[in-house]
Automatic annotation (TrEMBL):
Pfam families: ABC_tran. Belongs to the ABC transporter superfamily. Sulfate/tungstate importer (TC 3.A.1.6) family. This is Molybdate/tungstate import ATP-binding protein WtpC. It comes from the Archaea. It comes from Candidatus Heimdallarchaeum endolithica. Its main location: membrane. Coiled coil: none annotated. Residues 4-235 form the ABC transporter domain.
Length: 366
């Protein structure tokens, strides 16, 4: 139940490690936001800035328009859940949950009420007497969440909270966690290296790279409307095709790719400019040449691998660029190596960006 705002926050460790650079964003009251980005991009530092265990070198952080530095730690109403369970092994579930309110000096009746409420919020009432050693990994994480509720936290900070769970259980727990956060009206910030998790659990996702905010948006925004090459590259799987704008006068821009041309989403880039077309591997199709095919580039099959529900079809385009489609495997029939094919592009499913001055490779550096 708190709005969080970062205003131009920079954190420099030592003399020159810029872990977070000029970070600005707003997380609305009750929102579930994930932070994703390559290792070392500043996710944990951002979380620690929120927790108050590191202070900004420059810039300010606000909780509900109050500057955090001026708020005493106990008034920040923070709860934490990490990959490693922060549960006391010698106390049973009930005692673990009662620990926070007890330390705060709450009255016995109030503590009992808080613990009962917290236990039911995670559906663990029946396990009140159990010891941590008797609980499964998801149950231990539920105890961590119950402790957050008993401590009357309003902001929940999660750093790889599902990292210790098996894949199948992890997916189930994602739904539980989101539902829990929403029912309790918490504002949640969740750090994960697993982008599928971030996309399925969050209201919004922040993509960080080298300490900078690259894009903040809904999961749909990141998949369907990436605003830059890095997001296209890092979130999901995209391929890039280089070209030059031939015509920018209609809803779709015509782009020259080698000796061919295709229509792509008009990005307001002028005629003659060098561009990069970004297209998700799931969003294009590879077909045998046919006069009815529209908006395609010609290529030759490098490989066609069957991966159960998907096929990965690698194609060498005429302009010598390689792209790889991820196509639903509707039948076991495969393309043959060297076969000529049409790579069919749906213009509304493409994004077109100005060619980065530093080159594509450099702009994707992590
Ligand atoms: P992430 O969680 O995204 O992997 P971190 O926030 O942990 O990234 O780290 C960001 C950068 O800051 C890294 O280059 C890391 O080495 C550096 N860093 C983090 N904490 C410290 C610290 N206490 N002292 C010095 N450098 C640090
Ligand atoms: Mg980290």
């Amino acid at each position: 139940m708190t709005e969080i705002q970062f205003k131009h926050v920079t954190k420099i460790f030592g003399k020159k490690v810029e872990a977070v650079k000029d970070l600005s964003f707003i997380i609305e009251d009750g929102e579930y936001v994930s932070l994703i980005g390559p290792s070392g991009c500043g996710k944990t530092t951002t979380l620690r800035l929120l927790a108050g265990t590191v202070l900004p070198t420059r810039g300010k952080i606000f909780f509900d328009n109050e500057e955090v530095e001026k708020l005493p730690i106990q008034k920040r109403n923070l709860g934490f859940v990490f990959q490693h369970f922060a549960i006391f092994p010698h106390m049973n579930v009930w005692e673990n949950i009662a620990y926070g309110p007890t330390v705060k000096g709450k009255r016995k009746s109030e503590i009992e009420e808080l613990v009962e409420h917290s236990l039911s919020s995670v559906q663990m009432k029946k396990r009140a007497e159990s010891f941590p050693s008797e609980l499964s990994a998801p149950e231990l994480q539920k105890v961590s969440l119950a402790r957050v509720i008993a401590a009357e936290a309003k902001i929940l900070l999660l750093d790889e909270p599902l990292g210790a769970l098996d894949q199948k259980i992890r997916e189930e727990f994602q739904f539980f966690l989101r539902d829990f956060v929403k029912k309790q009206g918490l504002t949640a910030i969740h750090v994960t290296h697993d982008q599928a998790e971030a996309l399925s659990i969050s209201d919004k996702v922040i993509v960080l790279n080298k300490g900078q905010l690259i894009q903040m948006g809904t999961p749909e925004d990141l998949i369907f409307s990436p605003t830059n090459l890095f997001t296209s590259f890092f979130v999901g799987e995209s391929d890039f095709i280089e070209g030059y704008i031939l015509d920018d006068s209609t809803r779709f821009s015509k782009v020259r790719v080698g000796l061919e041309s295709v229509y792509v989403q008009n990005a307001g880039i002028s005629k003659g400019e060098r561009v990069v077309i970004a297209i998700r591997r799931e969003f294009f199709d590879v077909k045998k040449p046919n006069k009815n095919n529209e908006n395609f580039l010609t290529g030759k099959i490098i490989s066609d691998k069957f991966l159960g529900l998907f096929r990965r079809v690698k194609v060498l385009l005429k302009n010598q660029q390689i792209i790889e489609a991820k196509i639903h495997a509707k039948s076991p029939i495969k393309f043959k190596e060297n076969e000529t094919v049409h790579v069919i592009i749906d213009p509304s499913r493409t994004r077109c960006f100005e060619f980065p001055k530093e080159g594509i490779q450099k702009s994707l550096e992590m």
